[in-house]
């Protein structure tokens, strides 16, 4: 029997998504500003939903959960990226890389299923308004959110455990951060099981949830078209189009990255796409919900007014 004498690399080198070393300070400032805007925007949404009674509805409950997941997802990647930019030591330990993989994968999977739950909420509100209050109760929403979070954690745990069984003996260069495709590209051992698990996750979590969203909005659009009067149609559609924008932004970036087979991953591709779904898209979500939703804007105004009065 052939003995395995491979030495696992103690750390990975994160080359980063930005070139031109002389502009690292500028890139750090840009990422820091976007990161702070994201944290502040998401925190305001959560505060608005918790403190403003008119927002105590299932739709806004799921929006607050989405904001929290976005914070976790982005915080798993950006602080280390900013540290590497400012310190210059662009490395991450093996255990740190696995922790980043687990956190990012669990939050990404949770967000995929949460977007489907939000589509179901809109389907019930538009297509079955008489039963909406009795079905989408507080207990049901909390249970649904807890099950979605547990599903995301279980999915990430499986991917992390099968990743730990692989040999990483070098090279150890990662283009941006620790996620499944670049890590599989660095493995010396067979990644067949990992690719199978990633394919299954893509089918059920990405494509399956996307199809459920499409079907839900197919029924929603059909119900809206049956509404008499343009004002009623506009009011019904206004509760849905914000969610559609968020779904489009998220799926168009993350599906582009994960739809490719991991064995065919290239270290030089998809750097900027990773920036989109880890930073730009989550940063845009608060703007989408706050600038286009009257109830959220009203809640923001009351919170900011209260903070000003309290400061005097």
Automatic annotation (TrEMBL):
Belongs to the G-protein coupled receptor 1 family. GO terms for cellular component: plasma membrane. GO terms for molecular function: G protein-coupled receptor activity; olfactory receptor activity. The keyword Membrane applies. It is found in: Cell membrane. It comes from Alligator sinensis. It is a multi-pass membrane protein. This is Olfactory receptor. SUPFAM superfamilies: Family A G protein-coupled receptor-like. Residues 41-289 form the G-protein coupled receptors family 1 profile domain. The gene is LOC102371191. Its main location: membrane. Keywords: Cell membrane, G-protein coupled receptor, Membrane, Olfaction, Receptor, Sensory transduction, Transducer, Transmembrane, Transmembrane helix. The chain crosses the membrane at residues 26-53, 60-78, 98-120, 140-158, 196-220, 241-260, 272-292. InterPro entries: GPCR_Rhodpsn, GPCR_Rhodpsn_7TM, Olfact_rcpt, Olfactory_GPCR. The keyword Cytoplasm does not apply.
